[in-house]
Every structure is written in C-alpha cells, then in structure tokens.
Design a protein that fits this description.
295 residues, Nucleotide-diphossugar_trans, alpha/beta, nine-stranded mixed β-sheet, UTP:glucose-1-phosphate uridylyltransferase activity, Spore Coat Polysaccharide Biosynthesis Protein SpsA, Chain A, nucleotidyltransferase, transferase, GalU_uridylyltTrfase_bac/arc
Amino acid sequence: MTSPRFKAVIPAAGLGTRFLPATKAMPKEMLPVVDKPAIQYVVEEATQAGIDDILIIIGRNKNNLSNHFDSVPELERTLEKKGDHAKLQKVQHSSDLADIHFVRQGEPKGLGHAVLRAKAHVGDAPFAVLLGDDLIDERDVLLTTMLEQQARTGAAIVALMEVDPDAIHLYGAADVDATDTEGFVKVKGLVEKPAKEDAPSNLAIIGRYVLPASIFDILEHTEPGKGGEIQLTDALEEMAADPDGPGVYGVVFGGRRYDTGDRVDYIKAIVQLASDREDLGPELRPWFKEFAATL
C-alpha cells in the first residue's frame, strides 16, 4: 500500500462531443465498458493503489456521476428481498469504493484549469490525476509505481507510452533523457499535440500524472495555449525547464491501456475486456472468430 497522504483528482467535465447523441444527456464517463461505467474502472484503479480520497471535477449535466457513486436504498432493498446477493454486492461496491467528492469546473477551460479547481481540496500535498477516459488494465501496474517515484523524488511524474509516430499529434509528446532506472526517464520538455515532424519523440503522455502541489502556482499564471485552453502540458513544460524546481520524470508504460474517449478504441476496449472475463470470454471468443471469418 502507498502512503495515505495521496489524494486523487479525476477530471470529468468534458462535453463528450465525439459520442453524440449518446452523450447529449449522459456524461461520456458513464458510458458502459462491458457492465461498468468507464469512470468506475478509474476509481477502482486509484483505490487499488491505496488512495481512498478522490475528487471528481464535473461540469453541467453531470449529476449521473455523483448518483452512480451514491447508495440507492430502494434498489438495494429490492435486490435483498429477491435474494439476488450477487447484484446487490455489485451495486454496493460502487458506493463503498472510496470517499468521493465533487466540484464543478464551471467554464470548460481545459485540463489545466480542471486540475487547478482541485487546489482547495488537495492542499499542500502531492496528488494523482487520472483522466476518466483512459483505462489501465488492472493486471498491469502503473499508478503504484508512479506514486512510489513521486514519494522518492518529489518531482512531477507523468505516464508515457510509445505510440505510432503518425499518431503523436493526438498527444503531448515528451523529450526525455534516460536515467539509471529502466523505464524511468527525465523529461526535458513537452510539446502539446505536435505535428509528426516536430515531435521530440514518439513517447506520448497518457492520462496518469502524480504531481507536487507546486503545480497549482504554475497553473495560476499559465496562459491559454493550444485550443484556447489552459493546458496541463504547458505547466509541466515550465516545471521541467526550471533548474531550481522539482523537475518532471516519466514512467514508461508498456502494459494494456484502453482509450474510451475515441469511438473505435471504445469498442475495442469492450471487446478486449469482455473476451478476457471468465464469465463472458468462453462464449464470446468462439463467436469473435466466427464473425471475423465472415469479414
């Protein structure tokens, strides 16, 4: 278990326009991945790393998020009367995961602004940021390693993953130097969504960060950048360039990651996770093979 001083922040105020009309009345973070909403996987990841204090940054029309993590006494009583203890346990599980708080972002001014909204809750301690549409397979360790490295170095820690160079324009790209620890690099600079020819590497920042509280001071004076939004990448770039600051390091992740913010990758995530499950996989895998043969 990691130190209980870490809190987690999950920004979930985006409009989810890529999934319209499904997200017209439902937050994209509540879209089901097999039989759980995407955001529940993220909360479970935080709790498995030892974090039990979680702040979710929400926008307008996001009340479904808070409802999901609240108890539903009527439903629980109905399931108990029916003797359906398996479903009752699943319903209660989401309510008992952690101490979950909510704060509104107000205007959608970007990821950096969403993180800044967590300042009052987080205080002066380091904290984790987990993006709600990036799922990390529970069989692969990432966040625990990042928390350990932050506790050891006091630096900002970002999760990095090698991507196809043709896709680097979709991410923040890192310029890095190797360290004595395999899979752990020093970040010299960051570029938000660069063109392929301008990217310093094909190491992309994925949706996990462990940050010192000093990031708030930087975000407070960070000007809007790409897309007219306050970019967390820009604040991290400033931190990386400060010779007197804690610096920025990266944990290079080689495990299984599912991007539920993209429609095709969202469908792939459902297929992959469902096929791996003991209760669904034995029936699904033969059907996948039969279906693939007809294409």
